[in-house]
Amino acid sequence: MLYLEYIVLAAMVVFFSVRLSYYVDCLDKKTNLSGAFIGGVMLAAVTSLPELFTSLTAVLALNQPNLVQGNVLGSNIFNLCVIAGLLLFTSKRYVSAPLSKSHASTLWYGIVMYGLVFAAIMFPIEVGFGFLKVNLMSILILVVYAINVKFMGNDDSLQSDENDVYIALSVKQIVLRFLAYSVALVAVSILLTTVTDKIADELQLGATVAGAIFLGVATSLPELSASINLVRIGNFNASWGNIVGSNLFNFIILCFADVLFTKGGIYINEPQVLNLLGFGVFSMLATLGVIYFKKKRGIVLLCSVLILASYVTSIVLSM
């Protein structure tokens, strides 16, 4: 019964995410906002809501900080697998598709965040704000994210002529529908966390491994379904922004969890966590290869395979 609940909830996540990606594409065509910003900030934040609320549920209701680390770090590698998988089937279209310059910068910022998480684990420094105590690296992660958002907001390297496409809905109607589906996605995500925790107990999996496999995959379904839908309708730029932007936003989730988990630190030194960190950085570098060698289809396909292999290896070594 638990597995049926998991499948039903995951299917609902996919449905809500596809609708969200549609309204994001409408905003991209209806407004003057850059596709990188819409995909990398707006859609990325919304499709990362499952990671956010499942992680908050894990620390506030289930007292499982390990579940948070596994969820975030596992989701980040899986998210890049979404790009890799899509490229294996759409590499010919990708070679000629326009991409904003900020996507590569976002990946580099992500690598910096991996370094900050590693430092938070190995060299914990707590900073007190009244009754709250947070790791110094959590503050630095927030700063890095803010810098990247500002950079994406100013990115006008890709001017789209799709703003003239007729969209029947007004901007207000699009935003209201976007918000409604976002709320629905949050509700389903909270339910998904409790089901995952029960499955982990039944299978006797560690919290980190369960987070990386069940939560990491399930909470990445929004990125998966939204990106597939965006590529299907030809918006590679917003699709990339969604994935790389979601990965950066996921690190912010660690910061929120660090503030709210008052029974200890959120950054826990475990072999499984260090494993996910290492393979996460490798996957980010391989994804940079996909961008820098965009015109060379052979290298794009090789880097895509390396990203997929990295995720599989990280899960196998974490078991």
TrEMBL record:
Chain ranges passing through the membrane: 6-24, 36-62, 77-95, 107-125, 131-153, 174-195, 207-231, 243-261, 273-292, 299-317
GO MF, one example: calcium channel activity
Domain called Sodium/calcium exchanger membrane region: residue spans: 7-149, 176-318
InterPro entries for the chain: K/Na/Ca-exchanger, NaCa_Exmemb, NCX_ion-bd_dom_sf
Membrane topology reported for the UniProt record: Multi-pass membrane protein
Gene Ontology biological process terms from the UniProt entry: intracellular calcium ion homeostasis
GO cellular component, one term: plasma membrane
Localization, UniProt: Membrane
Broad class of where this protein is predominantly found: membrane
Pfam family, one: Na_Ca_ex
UniProt keyword list: Membrane, Transmembrane, Transmembrane helix
Name this polypeptide is given: Sodium:calcium antiporter
Native species: Amedibacillus dolichus
Lineage, broadest ranks: Bacteria, Bacillati, Bacillota, Erysipelotrichia, Erysipelotrichales
